[in-house]
Amino acid sequence: MSGFDKNWLALREPADRRARALDLIDRLCVHLVAAKPHRALLDIGCGTGSTFRTLSSYVPPDTTWHLLDYDPLLLAEAERRIGERPAVRFQQHDLNDLKSLPLDGVTVVTASALFDLCSADFCNRFIETISQRGNGLYAALNYDGVMHWTQPHPLDEQVVADFNRHQRIDKGFGPALGPDATQHLRLGLEWSGYIVRVAPSPWMLGPAEAGLQEELLRGMLNPLIEIGNLSSTQIRDWLGFRLACIAPAGSSCVVGHTDLIALRRR
Ligand SMILES: C[S@@+](CC[C@H](N)C(=O)[O-])C[C@H]1O[C@@H](n2cnc3c(N)ncnc32)[C@H](O)[C@@H]1O
After folding, report:
1. Atom of ligand 1 nearest to the CA of 95
2. Which CATH number describes the domain made up of 6-148+171-206+254-264?
3. Where are the domains of the chain?
4. What would the DSSP string read from start to end of 162-218?
5. Ligand 1 pocket: which of 6, 70, 116, 255 to mutate (most atoms <8 Å of CB)?
């Protein structure tokens, strides 16, 4: 099990969909249209299939999909939600085993909310692996370290700094890149001969996303305790203030992400 809950993934999916940079999706589609003899996407760390559900309304209809995750529960949920379709395959696979990643014939590898969990070493090996085969990469919704709220609290800056520190702790791939993921990928991919485009894809969470705001805040509790810079009283006060601000005060929150697409010259 990955520790990612299907309910959390379902809660964030609409915000993710709205946040994705459309011009990068356009680039992906143009690349797929030109791909010969077929168009194939490999979605790594697919979770319950959020990337498939969002992109399948944009990409050419004959695109085939291979969805891959190491968490059997999330993969089962993806299969249940997507259903049986001839153009979609599911596979349980640990990404740390890069050597047997099924990349043959893949036009573009897709991922969302994944690379900020990964280490520099993993990203370097991943780039080397895809560049040997010429696969493209679309990596969306990488957290960029920015978080702010319309109603300020004196501890916001410290809280975000501590949360970002926690983002760099090993999430199963070695020390995570966290907010540095996109820049690290960009440099490595450009060095490997890819044309790379990056665009912001922030979550803009208003009162209509109160449920997501609340879960996001509650999910920050353990990281803040684990980092241990703030006392439990400070954390409790900050969290209490933030939760109280959501409704009826209608506080909004921005959480920064970036999307990246890297394609080889034809
Ligand atoms: C934040 S979730 C994102 C899920 C999905 N892409 C989405 O946007 O909803 C990260 C995903 O990466 C998967 N993951 C984490 N480590 C992995 C690994 N070593 N091998 C394969 N999948 C992994 C998790 O199981 C989870 O589904």
Report:
1. 20
2. 3.40.50.150
3. 6-148+171-206+254-264
4. HHHHHHTS-SSSSSB-GGGHHHHHHHHHHHTTEEEEEEE--EEE-GGGHHHHHHHHH
5. 70
